[in-house]
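Take a careful look at the protein record below. Let me know whether the structure tokens fit the sequence:
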Amino acid sequence: MIRKTFKMHLYPGMVEEYARRHHELWPEMKAMIHEYGGRNYTIAFDAETNTLFGYIEVESEDRWAQSADTPINRKWWDFMAPVMETNPDNSPVCEDLREVFHLD
């Protein structure tokens, strides 16, 4: 299993809406995450900076990267674009973080 960590940024005042949308995550989006090898997905929020910190375990970097091009993922990006910083294709502006410590 590969551990991935990353950060994204919310627009000011959008944390409750972001959380609501994720608590109501579409079943087909959940299924896609699992189908493409994603497990143990967590997102945390830093209120001082409007920064989201994500953690997910994936089976394969290549397989996980393919999930970006699925229709359900593109639909999710469009749905989430009003609450967070995005690229021109509505993908979240996302920066990978380097793991510096892990303990099981």
The chain has a mean pLDDT of 97. Residues 2-97 form a domain with the Alpha-Beta Plaits fold (CATH 3.30.70.100). Helices lie at 15-23, 27-35, 61-66, 71-80. The CA atoms of residues 45 and 94 lie 14 Å apart.
